[in-house]
Amino acid sequence: MVPIDVQLAADEHFERIHRAALVLTGNPWDADDLAQETFLVMAREAHRFAGRSQVYTWLYGIMLNLERRRRRRAGMSRAKLRVLWDHTVHRSEDSPAAEAAIEVDEWKHSLWSLVATLPDGQRQALVLRFSEQLSYEEVAQALECPLGTVKSRIFHGLAALREMTTLRKGDVRHVPDHPYEDLNHAI
Q1: What is the pLDDT of residues 131-165, one digit of tens each?
Q2: H-type helices in the chain, by residue range?
């Protein structure tokens, strides 16, 4: 086991973990909870870090496991977004700030909202690869799966996104013309 300086790891990696949590959950409230819970698990389980990967890929793995458990336990987290999309947000003392509502609206209209509809494996691989810009090898470490599986998930995820954006007749500039284009980054 490799010792981890918990405070240093939190200082260095919180922003990137929070960003990935925001993309995965689609709203700032759940992202805050997920990122904080990730670092709580890290603090409790720091002695389990074996040093076979970078600390941040280990943290992504923790975050993804927590997010999977949350989705199973609470159903689809996108139901919360649908409530926000379909109803007017009424401000009160307990309501989130206006900028949080703006973030939700921006997410709703982004390509990431389509990513959120993909199967877990494809969604997680795409978030780590394109939002977090991890290498294929780092994505494989975070997801604890073979490199070929990561490449396959990204290929099929990009193909599904291309199809969804074509059907939606939206802006497809963010999706490669052919999913193989990203394979250049794998080498």
Answers
A1: 898 999 999 999 999 999 999 999 999 999 888 88
A2: 6-25, 28-45, 55-74, 78-86, 98-108, 111-115, 120-126, 136-143, 147-168
